[in-house]
Q: What sequence folds into this?
């Protein structure tokens, strides 16, 4: 299931011109703890690449080394054709970074925050207005940062990372601690960023959003990459059963066991669940018997892939 190599993403065939990041054999140790243990991956230009895993998996440490914020103990990194360590000034205008904990200048409005960040790169007012509109903060431009909601602060943080129009941007768990509505609003912003041709590298422990947003994902745990591919390919490779559930009373357990395609049947307090590797056959049989009222179908997800790879519950 593990696929190591250059992803085509949305940039065509892989090659040096279409590769944004090449990481080979990356290692980082803290005393006896190996936080990152031989990690290798590549990211194509214009790709939305996700690094997934529970807290403590090594995601943030990996990103900090790729960004040039931390020195690797072993391995090599090429970022836009350059080495990021020692700190490479040539890369700074070409990349943007949004960290887990955002730090803003005190007592400045949203517009003033962006103006201040933009001044470091010689960016003018028109770009500030464009970024405020992109992240949906035009009506909050005069609001002080400490008066913004959590979701609005996250969007402002993203705008600061993008103010200089970088080729490559890193987001480290940008939706952590946000409510469901704020998370989905932020998804729209992230999609728009990639649609403009920006390469996005993204860490998260929310598997559902990675499945929606990412071209490819790498699943990490204990400092290692366990699997890497498109979300759909990882799920297909699992060859997991499909769960078809009906409310109790729609079908008896005995009737369900006789249906073509039903491999296992389990009756619960609220619903009757049938597992199958042939969902089309089973659903057709239910339709022929007029038993589709209230039916729900659950196919495998990235969470199932994680459980299969690690043998334990996903730790968020």
A:
């Amino acid at each position: 299931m593990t696929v190591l190599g250059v992803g085509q993403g949305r940039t065509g065939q892989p090659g040096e011109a279409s590769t944004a990041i090449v990481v080979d054999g990356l290692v980082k140790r803290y005393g006896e703890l190996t936080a990152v243990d031989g990690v290798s991956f590549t990211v194509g230009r214009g790709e939305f690449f996700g690094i997934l895993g529970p807290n403590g998996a090594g995601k943030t440490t990996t990103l900090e080394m790729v960004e040039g914020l931390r020195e690797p103990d072993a391995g090599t990194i090429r970022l836009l054709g350059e080495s990021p360590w020692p700190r490479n000034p040539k890369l700074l205008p070409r990349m943007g970074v949004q960290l887990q904990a955002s730090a803003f200048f005190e007592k400045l409005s949203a517009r003033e925050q962006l103006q201040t960040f933009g001044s470091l790169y010689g960016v003018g007012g028109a770009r500030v207005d464009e970024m405020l509109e992109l992240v949906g903060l035009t009506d909050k431009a005069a609001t002080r940062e400490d008066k913004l909601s959590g979701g609005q602060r996250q969007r402002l943080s993203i705008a600061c990372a993008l103010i200089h129009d970088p080729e490559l941007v890193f987001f480290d768990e940008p939706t952590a601690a946000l409510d469901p509505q704020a998370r989905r609003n932020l998804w729209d912003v992230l999609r728009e960023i990639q649609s403009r041709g920006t390469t996005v590298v993204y860490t998260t422990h929310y598997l559902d959003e990675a499945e929606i947003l990412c071209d490819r994902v790498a699943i990490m745990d204990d400092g290692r990459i366990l699997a890497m591919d498109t979300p759909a390919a990882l799920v297909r490779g699992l060859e997991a059963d499909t769960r078809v559930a009906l409310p109790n009373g729609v079908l008896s357990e005995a009737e369900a066991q006789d249906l073509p395609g039903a491999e296992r049947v389990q009756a619960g307090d609220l619903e009757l669940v049938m597992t199958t590797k042939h969902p089309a056959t089973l659903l057709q049989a239910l339709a022929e018997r007029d038993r589709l009222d209230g039916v729900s179908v659950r196919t495998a997800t990235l969470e199932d892939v994680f459980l299969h790879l690690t043998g334990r519950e996903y730790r968020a």
